[in-house]
From TrEMBL:
Name of the protein described by the UniProt record: Chloramphenicol acetyltransferase
Family: Belongs to the transferase hexapeptide repeat family.
Keywords linked to the UniProt accession: Acyltransferase, Repeat, Transferase
Stretches of the chain forming a coiled coil according to its record: none
Species for this entry: Pannonibacter tanglangensis
InterPro entries found in the cross-reference section: Hexapep, Hexapep_transf_CS, Trans_hexapeptide_repeat, Trimer_LpxA-like_sf
Gene3D superfamilies: Hexapeptide repeat proteins
Keyword Transferase among UniProt keywords: yes
């Protein structure tokens, strides 16, 4: 056996509080890798409606989440649609209400201030009630603490906490972090990952590296 089916919405027969997101996300502007899950005691299958906010198609920004990520309850991804143009004398969005207020508005001018796609790497753990702001990139293996507000990019294997979110430490020394990025176990065939699970539970990075050659 090579683990659960990543396209099964609810991987546990005993509860519907955990979903594999790849099986429930429908927006073409959201991409989620295999085995990434979201936990919420209330309708976790509504992740893209309750957790991905201000995500409007006309903005063109994407949310990309890698494989083997763990996302806790009520995490919020704030997308570019939340931004107001602060270069104007008033940031009030007159144009969205129409009735003559949209005349002369150019979306291209507004788009100049957008921050681009939001990207979460592989093997990332995001804690309860964390908030990820527009255009942030979270590196592979990072951990985002509960209620952290992340407004800037997070390096691989960093632990971020607080508001504003800051790196409080790294999970491993630099050489181990680099080795893990080189190994990139999340890209392996699922059979090899399954065989490597005892090593992934441990701390011997070189033993894991030897699995890469099999």
């Amino acid at each position: 056996m090579h683990g659960p089916d990543p396209l099964t919405p609810f991987p546990f027969a005993s509860t519907q509080e955990i979903v594999f997101l790849k099986a429930v996300v429908t927006r073409p502007t959201i991409e989620v890798g295999d085995y990434t899950y979201y936990h919420d005691p209330v309708e976790p299958e509504r992740f893209e409606d309750t957790c991905v906010l201000y995500h409007f198609d006309f903005m063109g920004d994407r949310l990309v989440i890698g494989r083997f990520c763990a996302i806790a309850s009520r995490v919020q991804f704030i997308m570019n649609g939340a931004n107001h143009d602060m270069s104007r004398l008033s940031p009030y969005p007159f144009e969205i209400f129409g009735h003559g207020w949209s005349e002369g508005f150019d979306l291209a001018d507004h788009a100049k201030g957008l921050r681009g796609d939001t990207t979460v790497g592989h093997d990332v753990w995001i804690g309860r009630d964390a908030m990820i702001l527009p255009g942030v990139t979270i590196g592979h293996g990072a951990i985002i603490g509960a209620r952290a507000v992340v407004g800037r990019d997070v390096p691989p294997y960093a632990i971020v906490a607080g508001n504003p979110g800051r790196v409080i430490r790294y999970r491993f020394p630099p050489k181990v972090r680099q080795r893990l990025l080189e190994i990139a176990w999340w890209d392996w065939p699922i059979g090899r990952i399954t065989a490597a699970i005892p090593l992934l539970r441990g701390g011997d990075v070189e033993a894991l590296a030897r699995m890469a050659d099999r």
